[in-house]
Amino acid sequence: MSATRIVNDFSIRVATANGTGSQSSNSLLFKSLFRMGIGVCAKNMFPSNIQGLPTWFQIRVSTKGYQDLRENDDIAVLINPETAKEDIASMRPGTTIFYNSSVIKVEDSQKKPGQVYYPIPVEELAKKLTDAKLRHLLKNLFYVGVLSNLYGIEEDVMKSVIKDTFRDKQSAIDANVGALQIGIDYAKANLKKEDNYAFERSNVNDGKIIMEGNAAAGLGAVYAGCTVLAWYPITPSSSLAESAEAYMKKYRVDKDGKNKYAVVQCEDELASIGMVLGAGWAGARAMTSTAGPGISLMSEFIGLSYYAEVPAVIANVQRVGPSTGLPTRTQQCDVQMCAIASHGDTKHIMLFPSTPKECFEQIQTSFDLADRFQTTVFFMIDLDLGMNSWVTDELIYTKPKYDRGKVLNAEQLNEMKDWGRYLDIDGDGIPYRTLPGTNHMKGAFFTRGSGHDEYARYTEKPDAYIRNMDRLLKKWETAKTVVPKPVITGDKAAKTGIIAYGTTDHAVRECLDRMPKAPIKYLRLTAYPFTPEVEDFIKSCDTVYVIEQNRDAQMKQLIDADLPGYQNKLKSIRYYGGYPISADLVERELSQKMGR
Amino acid sequence: MDTNCNRIGLGKADYSGKPSTLCKGCGHDSITACIIEAYYQMGVPPYEVMKFSGIGCSSKTPTYFVDRGHGFNTVHGRMPAVASGANIANKKNTVIGISGDGDSMSIGMGQFCHAVRRNIDMVYIIENNGTYGLTKGQFSATADKGSKAKKGWSNPYPTIDPCAVAIELGATFVARSFSGDRKQVISLIKAAYAHKGIAVLDIVSPCVTFNNHEGSTKSYTFVKEHDMPLHELGFVPSFDEITTEIADGETKTIELHDGSKLNIKKLAKDYDPTDKMSAMKMIHDTRATGELATGLLYVVTDHPDHNTLLNLCETPLCKLTEADLDPGPDIIAKLNKAMK
Questions:
Q1: Which CATH code is given to the segment(s) B12-309?
Q2: CATH architecture of structural domain A211-393
Q3: CA distance B330 to chain A (A)
Q4: Does the domain formed by A6-206 have CATH 3.90.1150.10?
Q5: Alpha-carbon gap: A455 to the closest alpha carbon of chain B (Å)
Q6: For residue A236, is the peptide bond before it cis, meaning its omega torsion is within 30 degrees of 0?
Q7: What pTM, to 2 d.p., does this model score?
Q8: Yes or no: is domain A487-594 CATH 2.40.160.40?
Q9: Distance CA B276, CA B153 (A)
Q10: Which residues lie closer than 8 Å to A171 by C-beta, 6 or more apart?
Q11: pLDDT tens for residues A13-49?
Q12: Do A279 and B314 touch (CB under 8 A)?
């Protein structure tokens, strides 16, 4: 044991089988560290299964509170015998390994130099639990007790987390505290600390909260004035719809007990987007949430939304494709599909939040943009952001002022000299619409996905078709001036640039912290279409690395297509294994490519 | 008041639409005329009508009636979802969906089933001709087994009966009619409009171009010969104080949600449209004998429609504003505190 203590800067991997209650133990660890003011990050790497398959949970502490995955762990907690061999083999020399010694045997040949092994006889200790029914769940708290004793997690803090988790259920609180104590007592009596890791109280979490991106988006939808949510269950987006519904049930019921919202769990994704279009057409703010396979199914309707100009918000919580792919793993792999979803020539607005706080805000922006541009807006997140618990900035309330776009009522129609549903009166490509129920002789129009002219009349005439398609392009140009601008940081004079978006931002920012002397500037995309700032940024660089989580460099390809002429400058860095991208990978790839 | 005006002072022309572009003599045009007549007689405010359709010949027809209402020609087989969404968003407006046998019984079978199951408050008309007209005469799923196509071959598959499917799935108003029976179609559309919940009208409507030949069981001649009206229908709207049709011992009266009445005078067979099992038996028995039983097959008036199931507030969702929908800053402050 060397003298240098490693404080608040290491990562722990907990290997368990899913469905055994380890989620609540891991959450207890995570929240306790958060409440101690320590910069902490949690990543759950779980299987597409209910019970019994391997699952890993990384709890990472860092002095700066980085929220990206760490490639290698310093400490492993091995409870699941199924993966123990593989997990031990993956641990580097000098690391620490806790193992469930009741079911895992560690041979000397498996050990590497400098490693510390701590046995935890989980099954033997479990005999001390009096509640036989809960034994298989509660025994997962032993490792939490052991870690807290060896590394210094405050017992009072852990008890406060347990108390808040189970609220008034005293028996559950007692059972959990009791199980935790068994772990603590075991460590006290049997384990001698032989490594250098330690937690110490800090203060980096002031102004922060713990929240999942899906919950933040669900709450944001409530604040955005969404009244119709039609969805179909699919991982990893289900919790977005379920959170939204839970918030609506709490905050959207009138004094007579009636709902100021409708949530419909549909028969499939086609019905979900169909209902959203029907509701959006009739004037309600409507959304659906889904993942890649759902977008594939919705594509025909998405084209209708674009061509007939009906507002819709689609939250796409991306997972690994193609096909069923890896349903419980993360990627940014639907960027190209969503940019042009549907047959025919179409283009769609996309937003890319990076944190739960931004999820809360940008889902609200999505509704404004959908109404303003009378089209589908994709709210693009991924499994990592949607389903993991994040340490994020506190949510900020802003008094809502919905942008309902160009909607005419009967009085306004009277003042209009000439109105046609698809007539570009203002020269921005955005026409005016009326809502069903408008009592005016000229208030109605016919919406169709077939060819139509400025007055919504059926036509197959080439000129009318081209005029309409060109107006839609003009609308797209207008969108470039309205969608959120990118966030640009770093040395303005630098000739090397990075472009990233969504959750990749966290890995990029940590990597840049590690390379303080490298002359690099960074543009974080928050929206598609690209605003003029994106081209200006690329112009000002000699080389731009586009970093993303998919195989085919999808965002880079979009930039190549939309901003032609910079192909020679644009280089790609990608990770697509299904776990969140890490600063370790970005640093390695970037250093190699930059020849450092 | 002008005698040619309805109770809200509108003439029949106020319920008209664009000229039809369907084939001359198409059964669908007869149904369109019946919709115009029924909505005119009922005094439906035209601007409150939301018209929906999928894709196909039948789905073109919403442009041919009630021009003053908003229309939405959606995608193939997906009219029910779009109509459902609009109905949720604005429950004060009235919904009519026009579909065809291909649109509802093949590509859109799933959506049809779920719209029925949810009891969407709408008039759902299937203009049923047993064939794909726009793509020139392929069989649809409602073609009878053994029925002949224009090109000569016969249909090897069993038919899907929209009424049987609808009744099985819990539809609250199910009727079958024939586009050639104007009086019956108009009575049924009026009753369907008055019904709260989904009203499925399967109207056999011969395709004069692709399915009107010898050997087809959906030809005009065949349907006319085999049409077997179950009863005579007399619809008495709630606003009509003079009861023109007086019920006698042979007549059953069904009171609909809005207070209007449907007097059902039985014809040859004793038939009770409030009994689900006899409805199913009638459909199966007549299929075996080759007859087409028309009229109101099944009705139940006390089932909640989808918006009632959703417990929606009085104001249509699309009319709610920031003042109604914003949960306010205190909730955010509370949640921020709870997520520590």
A1: 3.40.50.970
A2: 3-Layer(aba) Sandwich (3.40)
A3: 9
A4: no
A5: 13
A6: yes
A7: 0.97
A8: no
A9: 36
A10: none
A11: 999 988 888 899 999 999 999 999 999 999 999 988 8
A12: no
